[in-house]
Amino acid sequence: MAKKKKKMVKKMLDGSIKRSKLNFGDLAGSEDVAKALGPNPDPERLKEAISINASLTALTTAISYLAKSQRPSYRSSALTHILQDSLGGNSKTTMIVNSSPHIMNRPETIRTFRFAQTAKTVKNKARVNKELTRAQMLQRIQELESENASLIAKNAELVSCLEENGLEAPTQSSSTDNNNNNNNDEKTKDKKKHYRNKKAHL
């Protein structure tokens, strides 16, 4: 695999720093060893082809996991480890696949299209890599603390309003008790139904 990487750092007027990284990768294609190398392949070429196919298999597996919103094992292959940021990281990725229209290469073309179809379903949510200054971070903390205090005050106001109207404010424990009671009611109904069916059968 041939890969080029370029990192960029930009300092904004407000003092914050934005970091970005641009990756270009050229992957080798999968090979049918018997078709590509013949009946008596060179040992070095054979070893290289097997290594390429193993790496591409690991890449296909990683993309299949990402398509299912699961985290793959990027360290299962050097290729997936290198492409980790581009595959499932904070990035926007464009993948171009090459295929052959020749009838002789039909199996490889079908596999390539299926791989591309799976890769197309992977969705990354890229966000700006912005490093705030100390003053900006302190300001953000103050904003969050103020928002938290406001929510606590609103919650206390709602509880007070409920108590004034003779209602009891719901709590997490009471919600759990209600769920348990509902489950017990369902179990009781199931038992009664079971006994009725058993009695009718007798």
TrEMBL record:
Keyword presence, Coiled coil: yes
InterPro entries: Kinesin-like_fam (IPR027640), Kinesin_motor_dom (IPR001752), Kinesin_motor_dom_sf (IPR036961), P-loop_NTPase (IPR027417)
One function term, GO molecular function aspect: microtubule motor activity
Coiled coil feature spans: 127-154
UniProt GO BP: microtubule-based movement
Basic residues: compositionally biased ranges: 190-202
Family per record: Belongs to the TRAFAC class myosin-kinesin ATPase superfamily. Kinesin family.
Name of the protein: Kinesin-related motor protein involved in mitotic spindle positioning
